[in-house]
Write a structure and sequence with these properties.
alpha/beta; Rossmann fold; about 45% helix
Length: about 425
């Protein structure tokens, strides 16, 4: 069972007592994803012989465009079949309503993970969400080998799958692997509460880490100077979890009719795809995605940072418990954050709870326009939000603190 909240008896054990572990994740550095970046921050200081990494063959090629994090020094293992083949087989299984295909793929994954984990002589396995088979396959392997199983739930596992067949498969296995885990790690308080309610498990909250040393102290806290251009900045992926929030922003900017206000977007998605989904206008500047080491300077030059989540998406439960990987970065940048997300989401709750961003939780472009106007006109508001944001970055997202907690969590498993 996952440990009970507040049990820090092993907190001083540290890396000296750390067992060798296998980490199984679809996204691994240097692929370009928030999950990959989190894992890079957590593992970059570990010795290569303390862990091994397992992922699907060729996913790193599809997910990396040369602007992710560096590769980790530990050994990588790539399992078959190819990532794209798995995607195709899942689509076929969903269309055919074939549980048999899913069970065959799960057995294949179990066999491959067991072979690698035995070969590497790992004493624990950490399985990350993001793939349908990784969490249950790693759980079965841990049971057969008698080693601790740690679930790292970057998102709500069973709610990641829209197909009824895939959702039912994930839910069936979730009911075993969450209560049976030695530890469950979640990135926020909302998913912690959800797993407590559903399974009686006290998960460990590790907010997605951010390297605060990359953000300059002399850039804040947003003074009262007025520039020729007022910049609203977004950095990161844009897909179904964001579309209608961006569409509201476009309508809000059109209604404001302030030529000096411009939206700058840095994203791996193409300009044509954004335009097709209603993210277009003469006030938008589209940028190619940039290397992660350039993001702090880009973020700290903006007048406000936009953090959107969709109000009507195919996966409302995921939106509700989502922790965007860039959240710590936005807080660390010492710029005011404009949040446009559903009222029942973790993101809206966090920024309201800590008064560290201006939250517009209504699905209404007019309300969003009012929020933009308030940030433009009120220098005290900008300064107060920026100051509170950086305080939360230090409190909840500092990678030094989070790495220590992760290491101690692993070391605690040595004493069982």
């Amino acid at each position: 069972m996952a440990r009970k909240e507040g049990d820090d008896s092993h907190i001083s054990k540290g890396r000296a007592n750390l067992m060798k572990f296998a980490l199984v994740s679809l996204g691994l550095p240097p692929s370009q994803s928030g999950q990959s970046l989190v894992l890079y921050h957590l593992l970059k200081d570990f010795k290569p012989d303390q862990y091994c990494l397992i992922t699907q063959k060729n996913f790193h090629l599809y997910g990396s465009q040369g602007n992710g994090s560096s590769r980790l020094p530990g050994r990588y293992h790539y399992i078959n079949p190819d990532y794209q083949i798995i995607r195709g087989m899942l689509s076929f299984a969903s269309a055919a309503h074939s549980k048999g295909i899913l069970n065959i793929l799960l057995k294949m994954r179990i066999h491959q993970l067991r072979t690698i984990i035995r070969q590497e002589k790992c004493e624990a396995v950490v399985a990350c969400t993001g793939d349908l088979f990784d969490p249950p396959a790693a759980y079965q392997v841990s049971k057969s080998l008698g080693i601790p199983y740690i679930l790292y739930a970057f998102d709500h596992y069973s709610h990641q799958w829209m197909s009824p067949l895939l959702h039912d498969f994930a839910l069936k296995h979730e009911r075993q692997l969450i209560p049976g885990a030695a530890e469950v790690i979640v990135p926020n308080e909302f998913l912690h509460q959800e797993y407590r309610r559903a399974y009686g498990v006290e998960a460990t909250v590790l907010h997605n880490p951010c390297d605060l040393s990359q953000y300059r102290a002399d850039q804040g806290f947003d003074g009262t100077e007025r520039k020729r251009e007022t910049t609203i900045l977004y950095t990161g992926a844009i897909y179904e979890a964001h579309y209608d929030a961006f569409q509201n922003l476009v309508r809000a900017l059109r209604s404001l009719d302030r030529p000096e206000v411009r939206l700058h977007i840095y994203t791996p998605q193409s300009e044509s795809k954004l335009r097709v989904n209603g993210i277009s206008g003469g006030f938008i500047t589209y940028h190619k995605n940039q290397p992660i080491f350039t993001m702090p300077e880009i973020q700290q030059k903006a007048d406000m940072l936009f953090l959107p989540l969709a109000f009507n998406s195919p996966y409302p439960e995921i939106v509700k418990t989502a922790s965007p990987g860039k959240m710590g970065e936005l807080l660390a940048a010492r710029r005011p954050v404009l949040v446009h997300a559903p009222a029942d989401s973790f993101v809206s709750w966090y920024f309201k709870q800590h008064s560290c961003g201006l939250v517009v939780a209504e699905n209404d472009p007019a309300e969003l326009a009012k929020g933009i106007e308030a940030l433009i006109e009120d220098g005290d508001l900008r300064r107060n939000l920026s100051k509170a944001a950086y305080a939360r970055a230090k409190e909840d997202f500092d990678d030094i603190t989070i790495k220590r907690k992760f290491t101690n969590l692993l070391a605690a498993q040595c004493t069982g």
